[in-house]
Design brief:
The complex is a heterodimer of chains A (574) and B (132). Chain A has 574 residues and is an alpha/beta fold. Chain A has 25 helices and 10 strands. Chain A has 2 domains: 72 residues, no CATH class; 401 residues, TIM Barrel, CATH 3.20.20. In chain A, the strands form 2 sheets. Chain A has a 5-stranded parallel beta sheet. A 5-stranded parallel beta sheet of chain A has the order 2-3-4-5-6, covered by helices on one side. Chain B has a single domain, classed as Rossmann fold (3-Layer(aba) Sandwich). Chain B has a 5-stranded parallel beta sheet, with helices on both faces. The chains are: A alpha/beta (574), B alpha/beta (132).
Amino acid sequence: MLETRQVRNQSPPECLFSEEHVKQIKANYQDWFDNSLRDADRESEGKYFTHSGIPIKLIYTPADIDHLNYTEDIGFSGHPPYLRGVYPNMYRGRFFTVRQLAGLGAPEDCNERVCYLLDHGATGISILFDLPTVRGYNSDDPEAEGNVGACGAAVDSIWDIDAFFKDIDLGTASTNIVTHLPSTSLVIPAMYFAVAEQRGTPWTSVAGTCQNDFIMETCVGSAPEILPPQASFRMQCDVIEWVCKNIPRWNPVSYNGYNLREAGTDAVGEVGTAIANAMATADELIRRGMKIDDFAPRMSFFWDLHNDFFEEIAKCRASRKVWYQLMKERYNAQKPKSLLMRFHVQTAGVTLPATEPLNNVARSAFQGMAAVLGGCQSLHIDSYDEAYSAPTEEAALLSLRTQQILQAETGICSTVDPLAGSYYVEYLTDQMVQRIWDHINKIEGMGGLVKAVEDGWLHREISTYNMDYQKKIESGEMKIVGVNFQVAAEKETKAIEVYEYPETYSRQKTKLEKLRKERSSTKVQECLDALKDACHREENLVPHCLEAVKNLVTLGEIEETFREEFGLWAFPLL
Amino acid sequence: MERKIRVVMAKLGLDIHWRGVYLVSQFLKDSGMEVIYLGNKFPEQIVEAAVEEDADVIGLSSLGGSHLTLGPKVVRLLKERGLDHIKVFMGGVMAPKDARSLEEEHGIAKVYLPDTPMQVIIDGIRSTVALA
């Protein structure tokens, strides 16, 4: 309704400034440039760039955004093109979800940490797994040696998910399950759904997100055993298809720009690649007979908020507009919810050095502020001990408190998209929109993201980017306070406390031994045989995984079946 | 011509973070060393590759928490096979006290923590190999 009203009342063309006004500003700008600046100032033009390489001028004026049309290009929150935010009332209606990661040791330890965060005002849960769980091995598999319970929680069976969520009501919790890979997104959320069922919580009230991104399997992380891109992509689509039909409040995918950014890409590559992945998914699900509006409302995204304050805010705003344009123009989506890009943000771990770790409190707070000014739906602020270990309780609480300070004290949540109308921010946002589209089109030109990954293109891009980034640090062109800029004469000697995880391995091993005694081996074999068959048919794998986890089949057993049936893929950079 | 220093680089076990190890590999290569990047490998495979490649140095990367288990295991396997001349370096994310323990008690030649300039790693490898 709002759009029609505006279109009727506008005096065409509805640009932000009148042509005459812009002409005058341009003349004044030239006068200012020629007469008010020193030679050194004028020479500095062309030498400043955003992190992703957009040239930055000394000053921005209406002349830099005179082509923008308010209604079409910027608009109102909760209205196309959603650049200013996905909901009309934004944070007055509901604050972003305060969702700090928790994951270390055994599930029982994590339950303690999750409850601690909830007791201190966290409003969402985000659970992180150890590397054996992430890559689909049981705690007692030989591959898991040395990694059980480190950097995340160990999960082997449905019992562990039950323990993880002890005393937490799955009907009211909002849970992000950081599964990374599609293959484990078939299994761990299934454990969660099965636990909900066993506790009598209807699936209609189960809310949350799993990550489920095939580039995490094939590109962003490396591993001894990697499933082929096509197989991993098929699993990604299976999870989305099944969840959209069965768990109405669950986001079955969080397109992971974050970890790609951390592995090595800029803001444009982060958003462009994630959206290219969503396009590949949409095309496949439509091929399977679904309609865009059956699944688009449940797609969610995950951004990394890096150091370049204004570019990151522009990225968040631009990503919503690109998504709207894609859904509207290419897929002809009808449901308003299909047009909304909702995203979770984590501040950039890669920007947090080990040197003078307390400085990271300041870095993360600025990045978190950019996320809120960018209109995120949910936020994790990294802890200062990022470069040492999973956060201690003290560090985790400080991150949580930083979020609460943003919400309650800074005033930035009181009005929608407060930086709109800044000549610089609007200019950058417009630039980001164009560059993200260029990136998407480039991937499309290569035959889509699955093909680009199979060919090793994305891996090479990451590697080139990292080399360039590192050289900038080594040369001092990229300044890092305390590391290569304003380096302290005397090294700080303050000892940092590191979180030590308890003896997770032996606890998990004992549980696995008990589980193997208690379950029916016939039933286990039946489940695995059915799963094996389904791998080779065009059949959704989720129901088979659900049946398996209910019958106490372990994560490692299911994943081993996938590795055997789909075979392994060689990481292209070797 | 002087023999190039031969370095076998590996990510330890299941650790997924390849950014750092791949970068260090490239910088070592650019500094004139012969670098073989193995990707993710377990200690037995790493030692096997070091033998095959006639390596002077093994570089291990760990950001996944297995530094105290898999790192020393590589040194132990080398010792068992009488390959003590191969020096083991490590890099990654860990507590400083763990890094000290690896150097003082577990035979790791040197552990490089985050923020280490590339040149420090290059010089460290060169001087260690020169002394050997």
